[in-house]
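User: Can you recover a sequence for this backbone? Please restate the input before giving your answer.

Assistant: Of course. Working from this structure:
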């Protein structure tokens, strides 16, 4: 019984973490999965221009911001994501330097 309870809590927590995490699944709405590049990352093939980039969110977002064939809406949306990520990074940097 206790074990079942523990698993349920764990499952709930990991579910929450996925939902609160980076919107990686959104990136993949604009890319097709290509072959694996290494043990952890796949190739991401752009739906708009068929260019391939490494399937990590940073590179995918960077590409969508400057993809010539992507809709302006898509470019703008991902430019916002990029700015947000930058702000988060800078906020973390500040936090870290305050700790020193
Ligand atoms: Zn593209």
């Amino acid at each position: 019984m206790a074990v079942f309870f523990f698993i349920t809590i764990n499952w709930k927590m990991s579910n929450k973490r996925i939902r609160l995490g980076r919107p990686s699944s959104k990136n993949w709405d604009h890319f097709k999965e290509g072959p694996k590049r290494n043990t952890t990352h796949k190739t991401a093939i752009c739906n708009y221009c068929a260019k391939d980039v490494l399937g990590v969110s940073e590179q995918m977002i960077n590409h969508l911001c400057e993809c010539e064939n992507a809709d302006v809406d898509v470019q703008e949306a991902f430019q916002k994501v990029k700015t947000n990520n930058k702000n988060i990074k800078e906020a973390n940097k500040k936090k870290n330097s305050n700790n020193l």
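That completes the design. Helices lie at 2-20, 24-28, 57-66, 72-99.
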